[in-house]
Amino acid sequence: MAETLAHRFTEFLLESNALKFGDFTLKSGRQSPYFINAGAFDDGRKIATLGAFYAEKISQAIVHNTIPRDVDTVFGPAYKGIPLAVSTAIALTARHNMTVGYTFDRKEKKDHGDGGWMVGTPLKDGMKVLLVDDVMTAGTAVREVIPKLKAEADVEVVGLVLSVDRMEKTKDSDLSAVKAVEAEFGFPVLAIANVREIFDAAAKMKNADGTPLLGHELRQRAESYLEQYGA
Ligand code: OMP
């Protein structure tokens, strides 16, 4: 039987060293025993593979009518979203026959030459924009970028696709950050995999010497973190 997208993505995360175990302080201030580092996709093969995973998720969502097919541009917030938007647009065109642009923002406004805040396909009123980002914990990154998009043009954000949903509660509710963003902005938020799918898939994998890849202690630490912060 073919493995699920989440299972194949977990294998890719592990072989790319993008999933780390240890003690990590998150942007939200939480201390996490695991961290997903999109910066690990640092060569042509890995970034092309990553783009193909995003495109596969998007194409599934189009089939399920969660995301419309006539997306005008894929938007990735600077900096980590930039290679995501570009590689996703390439894969959507090459593998799924979709003609889409890519757009990203500058961290500082450029006041000469082509100027402005945006690079890539210019945003225009009425355009359908699909956001891509790496990981969502509290949803801070996406909340920062939406006003910047809206200030540029009256675009319609049709969805947000992530690599990983960490499935964490927001500070002031039991709702997951993903659900809170969906409720606040009214567009779907999808992830190639969520942390529970990743741990379930990793638990079935073995090292070359036959020992379990995810030892009991690591699994326990992840579980107790999710008991405290998981939605
Ligand atoms: P929020 O903006 O709070 O949702 O946190 C997500 C951001 O934190 C990501 O875009 C990353 O910059 C960073 N992050 C990771 O990259 N991987 C993780 O596993 C956790 C975080 C994090 O700090 O929460």
Automatic annotation (TrEMBL):
Gene Ontology cellular-component terms for this entry are: cytoplasm
This chain's protein is named Orotate phosphoribosyltransferase
Q: Which residues form the Phosphoribosyltransferase domain?
A: 43-187
Specify which residues bind orotate according to the UniProt entry for this protein: T137, R166
Q: Name one GO molecular function term.
A: magnesium ion binding
Encoded by which gene? pyrE
Q: In which pathway does it act?
A: Pyrimidine metabolism; UMP biosynthesis via de novo pathway; UMP from orotate: step 1/2
Q: Does the keyword Iron apply?
A: no
Write down the top EC class of this protein.
transferase
CDD domains this protein is in?
Answer: PRTases_typeI
Q: Which family does the record claim for this protein? A: Belongs to the purine/pyrimidine phosphoribosyltransferase family. PyrE subfamily.
Task: Tell me which InterPro entries the record gives.
Answer: OPRT (IPR023031), Or_phspho_trans_dom (IPR004467), PRTase-like (IPR029057), PRTase_dom (IPR000836)
Query: Which Enzyme Commission number(s) are on file for it?
Result: 2.4.2.10
Query: Subunit structure, briefly?
Result: Homodimer.
According to its UniProt record, which cofactors does this protein need? Answer: Mg(2+)
Keyword Glycosyltransferase assigned to the entry: answer is: yes
Per UniProt, 5-phospho-alpha-D-ribose 1-diphosphate binds at 27, 79-80, 106-107, 110, 112, 133-141
Annotated function? Catalyzes the transfer of a ribosyl phosphate group from 5-phosphoribose 1-diphosphate to orotate, leading to the formation of orotidine monophosphate (OMP).
Reaction(s) catalysed by this chain's protein: orotidine 5'-phosphate + diphosphate = orotate + 5-phospho-alpha-D-ribose 1-diphosphate
Alphabetically list the UniProt keywords: Glycosyltransferase, Magnesium, Pyrimidine biosynthesis, Transferase
User: What Gene Ontology terms for biological process does this UniProt record contain?
Assistant: 'de novo' pyrimidine nucleobase biosynthetic process; 'de novo' UMP biosynthetic process; pyrimidine ribonucleoside biosynthetic process
Taxonomy, superkingdom: Bacteria
